[in-house]
Amino acid sequence: MFEHWTSEKHLATGKYTSLSGSAAKSPPSDPEKWDMKWEDERVQNLLDNIGYSLSLRIVWLGKFLTFFGQLVTQLFKGPYRVRNFVKQMEVVGQQSLVIVLLSAVAIGGAFALQVAGVFSVFKAETLVGGISSLSFSRELASIITGSLLAGRAGSAMTAEIATMRIHEQLDAMEAMGVNPVQYLVIPRVVAATIMTPILTGFFIIASTFGSFLVGTIVFRIDPGVYKANIFFMTQVSDIMQGLQKGTAFGLAYSSICCWYGLGCKGGAKGVGRATTNAVIASLLAMLVIDFIITFLQLG
Predict the structure, then answer these.
(1) Three-state secondary structure of the chain
(2) Which tens digit of pLDDT belongs to each residue from 83-138?
(3) 289 lies in which domain range?
(4) Which of 46, 59, 154, 162 could bond 257 through an S-S bridge, CB–CB 3.0 to 4.6 Å?
(5) Model-level pTM?
(6) Would you state the pLDDT for residue 291?
(7) Among candidate residues 140, 142, 111, the one with its CA nearest the CA of residue 211
(8) Contact call for residues 162 and 274 (beta carbons, < 8 A)
(9) How far apart are CA 84 and CA 169, in angstroms?
């Protein structure tokens, strides 16, 4: 480590001390070269840290892809536990429906307020219905629904599986010849993959209803004109684009959350850390997937 020498005052007196108060070493003959060398080391350390962080991300991605390959393999092997599958569909779908609908109505109304406020400058408030419906169908409904489910259902998946890992229940299952991926992960992943696009469809309907209420009550847009613009600007293909994204998001967040649960360690603190990291990784993954799918759909 290079010692950082005090310069101006001590150079004038001929005394040199390090900031740590340790015994002084011989001062450099040229303080400017010393500072340049110290700055070079800081840059090198920064680059080393960036490279180390990048290597950790690459290792993480490789381990996850290995797990995902195992997941796909087990999906076609069986046995299929229908009871577990139905239970997880209830957890992901039915128990999340209320929060999805309430969020959709509120967000749809807020979106209509923002859009109508801008369109009113151009006397084009009647286009609010079509713009809102198109935006939610193509983009907003899927990403918001995926984020809500990752925070609610995904975190529950991670916490439940991580707790079983900490209590060695997964080890007991393996000792009895039961594959934890087949028994725990696959029902959750399949349920999330199916229920997320369904909830996305409900989100599109509820958000459009919320924007309809704001448009017709607050801005006094004719209901017939509002609905006509919705059907004119929003096609079935637009809705299908949103449902495709919802399917991909459901597969992504459920796989990531289950993987973090299986790899949990460190007791109760490790469960909390795994749950937090799983939700963050799921949100980032969905944003990246959203960009890729949008690029492919529009390309």
Answers:
(1) CCCCECCHHHHHHCCCCECCCCCCCCCCCCHHHHHHHHHHHHHHHHHHHHHHHHHHHHHHHHHHHHHHHHHHHHHCCCCCCHHHHHHHHHHHCHHHHHHHHHHHHHHHHHHHHHHHHHHHHHCCHHHHHHHHHHHHHHHHHHHHHHHHHHHHHHHHHHHHHHHHHHCCHHHHHHHCCCCHHHHHHHHHHHHHHHHHHHHHHHHHHHHHHHHHHHHHHHCCCCHHHHHHHHHHHCCHHHHHHHHHHHHHHHHHHHHHHHHHHHCCCCHHHHHHHHHHHHHHHHHHHHHHHHHHHHHHHHC
(2) 888 999 999 998 999 999 999 999 999 999 999 888 888 888 888 889 999 999 99
(3) 80-298
(4) 154
(5) 0.80
(6) 95
(7) 111
(8) yes
(9) 17
Residues in Cβ contact with 124 at an 8 Å cutoff, skipping those fewer than 6 apart: none
Residue 30, in any domain of the structure? no
13 part of a folded domain? no
CA–CA distance, 209 with 101 (Å, rounded to integer): 10
Section 254-264 average pLDDT: 91
Phi-psi region of 282 (alpha: psi -120 to 50; beta: other; left: phi over 0): alpha
The residue-averaged pLDDT of 44-65 equals: 76
Rounded to the nearest integer, the mean pLDDT of the chain is: 84
Decide if 90 is inside a domain. yes
**pLDDT band at residue 21 under the 50/70/90 scheme:** very low
Instruction: Write out the two tokens for 88.
Output: 């997880």
Across residues 210-229, what is the average pLDDT?
91
Tokens 């460190």, residue?
266
Question: What token pair was written down for 148?
Answer: 């809500």
Q: From the CB of residue 126, how many other CB atoms can be counted at a distance below 10 Å?
A: 17
Report d(CA 92, CA 146) in Å as an integer: 11
* Tokens (6 digits) for 196: 């997320």
Domain assignment present for residue 252? The answer is yes
Retrieve residue 175's tokens: 């000792």
- Measured in degrees and rounded to the nearest 5, phi and psi for residue 5 equal -85, 140
